[in-house]
């Protein structure tokens, strides 16, 4: 299946998670301020989603509890699927 282009052209963009955004899988864990690159987008606004690959500083600062929860549920912690409205481009 081909990747779908975002209306805003986010693929390849560096992003930051907006304040107040929590992990979709673990709502008790804040992702606010996490940074990475958009590797894929899907859907159309307002339901558009982005697949984000986290960068080195974010991976180094991830809460231990997040890593443990991902491991226990066999989830890939290096990436996440978020609503496009939950992220903003980095300058």
What is the averaged pLDDT score? Answer: 90
Cα-atom radius of gyration: 13 Å
H/E topology pattern: EEEHHEE
Q: How are the strands of the largest sheet arranged?
A: 4-3-2-1-5
Residue share in helix: 10-25%
User: How many strand segments?
Assistant: 5
Spans of at least 5 consecutive residues whose pLDDT stays below 50 are 1-7
For the biggest sheet, the summary is: 5 strands, antiparallel
Question: Beta-sheet strand percentage?
Answer: 25-35%
Structural class: alpha+beta
The first-to-last residue Cα distance is: 31 Å
Describe this structure in words.
This protein has 91 residues and is α+β, with helices and mostly antiparallel strands. It has one domain. It is 16% helix and 29% strand. It has a 5-stranded antiparallel sheet with strand order 4-3-2-1-5. A hairpin with a 6-residue loop joins strand 2 (35-42) and strand 3. The longest helix has 9 residues, at 64-72. The chain is globular and about 35 Å long.
Care to give the gist of this entry?
This protein is an alpha+beta fold and 91 residues long. The chain has helices at residues 56-61, 64-72, and strands at residues 14-17, 35-42, 49-54, 79-83, 87-89. β2 and β3 form a beta hairpin.
Overview features:
alpha+beta, five-stranded antiparallel beta sheet, globular, single chain, 91 residues, disordered N terminus
